Amino acid sequence: MSTEVGEVQVLLEQFVERSRYAAEAQIVCTFLTPSISEGPVRRRVM
User: Could you name the domain of life of the organism this protein comes from (predicted)?
Assistant: First the structure.
């Protein structure tokens, strides 16, 4: 049981890091390409 819980915690940490990195990349892309972010990308994010 304890090993399974540990594996789940590792997966959760990896998922959080990945989602945080994706959010930062999205913000950077939004600042770098404002004209594109005005289109369907922003609508999908909102």
Answer: Bacteria
Helix (H, G, I), strand (E, B) or coil at 46: coil
Q: Please say whether the beta carbons of 23 and 16 come within 8 A.
A: no
Q: Is the dihedral of CA 23, 26, 28, 31 positive or negative?
A: negative
What CA–CA distance (Å, rounded) separates 32 from 35? 9
Report how far apart, in Å, the C-alpha atoms of 40 and of each of 33, 44, 45 are: 13, 6, 9
pTM for this entry: 0.45
| Tokens found for residue 11 | 């997966």
Contact 26, 45 (CB under 8 A): yes
Enter the tokens of residue 25.
């990349």
